[in-house]
Amino acid sequence: xxxxxxxxxxxxxxxxxxxxxxxxxxxxxxxxxxxxxxxxxxxxxxxxxxxxxxxxxxxxxxxxxxxxxxxxxxxxxxxxxxxxxxxxxxxxxxxxxxxxxxxxxxxxxxxxxxxxxxxxxxxxxxxxxxxxxxxxxxxxxxxxxxxxxxxxxxxxxxxxxxxxxxxxxxxxxxxxxxxxxxxxxxxxxxxxxxxxxxxxxxxxxxxxxxxxxxxxxxxxxxxxxxxxxxxxxxxxxxxxxxxxxxxxxxxxxxxxxxxxxxxxxx
Length: 266
Description:
Strand content: 5-15%
Oligomer: single chain
């Protein structure tokens, strides 16, 4: 019995000691893979036109530690994404999408729906809350002469007071109005109740109501994505998540494209 106990202790100690080694090995592999992607990305950038290189520089400064590595991996793999450089067709209107990860999710669907009808650009960020918008709006607008700007702030403001949210949103609307572009506000899509994330579904309803008042006062058109997608949440929204599946993003992209077409061809 004593020998058996000693044997079990020895096995236990061996297992505990192996875990850090495995973790270190995994971390080393991850670091090596990231280094290779960075090297391939840097080499790829050198082959691009000056305009494309400038755009990649803007993305490097603004995408952040979460989205930039994803973007780099996709570029190296030759995959298209929401932050592709857009080589404008000069005879088509220029459209800018501003919004969070939900907006990122439907960007490609909007481009597909408006192919040959509009040049669809995306702000170089996950645009997050209104507080970030006030800091970064000039970067997101860039030097572009925009015909239409389709924008949203909401999910990341779910715990911002409605009063502060309203004040910031109104400031953003005033800044966007200065561009002389046609503005389209997208109502924020629904979120589920989730105590672990400190989020309540009603918070989006409240902020959509506040935003609706601001848009009415400023004569800004509304793309009511909240109402459009709500009947389809079971089918289109990921379980217990604010994000959508492929079908959901395709649906939202079509809705956004239709609202943009109305602005282009009133």
